[in-house]
Amino acid sequence: MSVLDLLLGNRNKSKLKSAFKAAGLTRKIKRRGQAKDLEILPTIHSVRYLDKRTEFVFTLPNGVDPELVAKNDYVFKQYLGTQTEISGNLKRFVVNVYKGRMPSQFDYAYTDTDHRLPIICGINRVGELVTYDMALTPHLLITGETGAGKSTQLRSVITQLILSRGPDQLRLVLGDLKMSEFHVFRNLAHVEAVCYNAGELTKQLDWVDGELKKRGKLLNEHELTHISELPSPPPAIVVAIDEFALLREEKAVMRVVEDISAIGRALDVYLVLSQQRADKDVMNGRLKQNLTVRMAFRAADAINSRITIGSGEAAEISIEDRGRFYLKREQLEILQGPFLSVEKARALLKPYKRRGVDSSDSPHKGEYPVPTLNDPLGLLGDSPAGFAGGDDDA
Ligand SMILES: Nc1ncnc2c1ncn2[C@@H]1O[C@H](COP(=O)(O)OP(=O)(O)OP(=O)(O)O)[C@@H](O)[C@H]1O
Predict the structure, then answer these.
(1) CB 315 within 8 A of CB 300
(2) Which spans does this entry mark as compositional bias, Basic and acidic residues (predicted)?
(3) pTM over 0.95
């Protein structure tokens, strides 16, 4: 630790104490015979001077509402700088004050991970790649204002999934209600269908609904807790819908989506939903609660941000910071999402292109076993490895 670190650390420690007071995280105790109350501040337990950040650990006095910490995160930023992040719950919290600036862009590249269904989220303040396994932490909600970067994130999420799993291990049902984002995924071996309206999506979700029932029965018959325990398990299914809010009046769609959110994990069926905001007009509480991982891109205001991530911070993301978002799992963390252009995605996905098949008319409605890697949909005759690898969009 350098002398400069120590000086900065001490200065930040006193700023942290001022932030505690301004954020109302103190408890006042009346003292007999004394005019002034005794003010009990949170206890700072440790200060660590690390390479790229200074870390403070503090605990709240008993009786102080822990919700106040998230609600007043802006106060900590006002006192300690915008490079400040807080995480924790109930009593113990960690404040990190970062030295560098967030990276402004980073380009998507396929990343090998140990995850079965890898989600590449982005890079954090110190340049580390943040990933997680959707099979372990299911159902993702992406929100943000127009132009904040939701569709780009969806593109890289779906591309990474396709590049990580064969079409015999992963089936995708895609909903593109804006008719603008998912054309790059049309006619790919993994893709059941790209749906452009509620009618098409309802048809595909009927199939998913059938899978839920069939898989549920299998679990029951074989007395298993997860469908992947079967000797030859069916493929994972990911239903990804951009601008999900446009479907709010579609009862048939909503019913299946809610069912997936409630029982999909054990059946290897997952959701990725994207929309501008997540208030109760566009998404009911039960569904939202089951979307356990949240990515909040720039929000219109603190209320919208709070609805997604429980904190107002996504409203503070600058309009210039496209692709910047807050990831909420157990903790809240700011990330820069990978940039993946349509052209690059198309080039990466080219080996999985199917020839002469309209993906809106999905052939994958059969019984198990599922298609094999060599002939993913049983339609390609003797095409090498089952993939055409050269055609443009049909
Ligand atoms: N991760 C990123 N890194 C750098 N630039 C990005 C990133 N994501 C998005 N952008 C830029 O922001 C623009 C808008 O992104 P995108 O279309 O993904 O936003 P959106 O939230 O889906 O908007 P809309 O709801 O209007 O479709 C992109 O064309 C791109 O130039």
Answers:
(1) yes
(2) 355-367
(3) no
